[in-house]
Amino acid sequence: MPEISLSDSRGRDAAVYAESVRVPVRVRYVDESGRQAATARVLKGTLDRDYAALLEAAGAPEAVAAALVAGDPELDVEATGAFLRDTSRVYVNSERRVVHAVTQVEVVRNPDGSEKLRRPKKLAVPNVTPEQPLLWGGKLLPKAAAFNKYAMVSKLQVVHVNGLTYDFLFGIARELEAKKSLLVLGAGPKANQPLVLRRGAVPYRGFLEGRTRGAEYLLLLHLSNIELKAPEAQTP
Amino acid sequence: MAKPLAFEFCDRSVEVGLEKVDRTKLYGWVDVEVQDDAGRPCELATLVGDGHSVVGKGGTAIAYLTADGLWTTRAELRPVDANGQPVTPVKSSFDAPIKLDATATPDEFLEHNVHLIYQVVPTTGFDELLAELTAGTIYHFPFSYRGGVEASPAFLLLGGDGTPFLCVGAATALEFVGPAATAPAAEESADAGDEDALDFSLV
After folding, report:
1. How far apart are CA B42 and CA A102, in angstroms?
2. How many domains does chain A have?
3. How far apart are the CA of A138 and the nearest CA of chain B, in angstroms?
4. Which residue of B has its CA nearest to A154?
5. Between B2 and B69, whose confidence is greater?
C-alpha cells in the first residue's frame, strides 16, 4: 500500500495511504471435481533451438525440414515444459548473444506514424511520494462536465492511517462532494505535472473525487492517460 | 466492412459502426530502438532461472494445471462464477441488437475502469438516440466483442467533443471507509478516573 502526501484546500498536508482499487474476479476456472485450476508459464524452446538457430546450423530450410523429420532438434527434453520461475528480462543482439550494455533511443511518432523527434530514453521518476506532497492546485472540474472528457483507466482509493487523517480526508471528500467537482491533481510545485507512481511507470493525469455517506467517505484518485475525443482525420 | 453493432432503441433497431480509439490515434506513440556497443539492434528476451538459457519471443507458453499440479487443457476446465456456479457463455454483442433499457449516472460510470474505447460511427436513424445522448443520458449494457465466458460492462455516452463513444471497462470494488477503520480507543478500566490508582512505582 503506497504512502502518499496529500494537501487540502487550506494548504495542510498529511501522509495517507493510496490503495489499489480491486477489480473483482467474476469468472474462474475449475477442474472436473470443482477444484480451482491454475496457470503457469512454461518453457517451449530456447533461442539456441528455435528456427533461426536450426536454420543457421542446417544451412537451408530443406535441411531443417529433414532434421525435423529425422529427429527432434527443436526439443531439449530436459528443459521443454519446465516451469519458468525467477526469470529476468535481458537484451540479445542480432547475433543472439546477451548484451550487458545498451543504448536506448526513443523515437516519438505522430499519430500518422511520421517521426516527430528522437531522444535518449529516460525512465520516468516517481513524483508521488510521502516526501513530495500533492498540492491542492485548486482546479476543479464539475463532475457533470468532466466524466465524459477523460477516460478513467485506473483508480486508487485514498484512505486514512489514523484518526487525525480520517478527519483530514473526510473533510476533503465532503468539500469535493459539496462542490460536485473533481479536483485536478498534479505533481510538482505547480500541481500541474502528470503523476508517476513508480519508476518507469506510465504517467497519468489525476482527478480526485470525494463522496460521503454518514461518517464514512470515499476518496478516489482517478487516473487517466487518454481523453474521450475523436482522433483527427489523417491525411493520406 | 466490419459488422455493424445494433441497438434496440424506441422499438426500432439503430445500427452503428465502431472504430477503436487508443492513445496512438490521438497522440502518436513512442518506439524504443535498442543497440549494443557495436550499433547492432537488440531485442528483449527472457533469461531462465538457470542463468544461461535464453528464451526468445514465442519461446514460452501458458499451461493449465489442476489443483494437484497436473497438466490439463483448457477444454477440460469449466468456468464458474465467484460462488462456484457454472457460467453461461455469452454471445458476441454483434449477433443481436442490444436493448438500451438501462441507464447509468456519471457516478456509476466513474466507478468503472475504462479499458477500451470505441468511437461510434452513426448511420441513418441515429438522430433520436443522439438527442438522448446529448441530453446527458448514459446507456449501460453488457458487451462482448467476440463472445466468451463473460461480458464486460459497457457505456454508450456522448464525449466532451460531441462524439458518441462506447466505453468498455470493468467494475471496481469500492468501499466507503469510516473512523472504525482506525486504531481503536483504549478500553476503559473499572478504576478509570481514580487518580490514586496511578502506580508511579512503574515509572
Report:
1. 8
2. 2
3. 21
4. B113
5. B69
- B30 contact A CB<8A: yes
Radius of gyration of chain B (CA): 28
The C-alpha cell at A182 is 473533481
At position B88, the amino acid (one-letter code) is T
The x, y and z cell numbers of residue B34, run together, are 535498442
The pairing of beta strand B98-99 with beta strand B5-9: parallel
Identify which of A162, A160, A147, A159 has the alpha carbon closest to the alpha carbon of residue A207: A147
Quote the pLDDT of residue B185: 53
Tell me which of B62, B88, B113 to substitute to probe the interface with A (most A C-beta atoms closer than 10 Å). B113
Distances (CA, A) of A142 to A139, A171, B106, B116, B137: 10, 18, 11, 24, 17
User: Would the CB atoms of A148 and B110 count as touching at under 8 Å?
Assistant: no
Average model confidence (pLDDT) across chain A: 92
| Residue A144 in this model has a pLDDT that exceeds 80 | yes
Tell me: do A129 and A14 sit in the same domain: yes
Q: At residue A208, does pLDDT exceed 90?
A: yes
CB pairs under 8 A between A and B: 290
In this prediction, residue A223 carries a pLDDT of: 95
The cell numbers describing A225, all together, are 492517460
Q: Do B63 and A90 touch (CB under 8 A)?
A: no
Instruction: Locate B63 and state its grid cell.
Output: 499451461
Q: What range defines the domain where residue A209 resides? A: 3-23+124-227
* Residue B119 Cα, gap to closest chain A Cα (Å): 7
- The class of domain B1-22+88-175 in CATH terms is mainly beta
Give A65 to chain B, closest Cα distance, Å. Answer: 19
What 3-state class would DSSP assign to A176? Answer: helix
Model pTM above 0.90: no
Q: Report whether A141 contacts A184 (CB < 8 A).
A: yes
Q: Which of B23, B77, B117 has its CB closest to that of A29?
A: B77
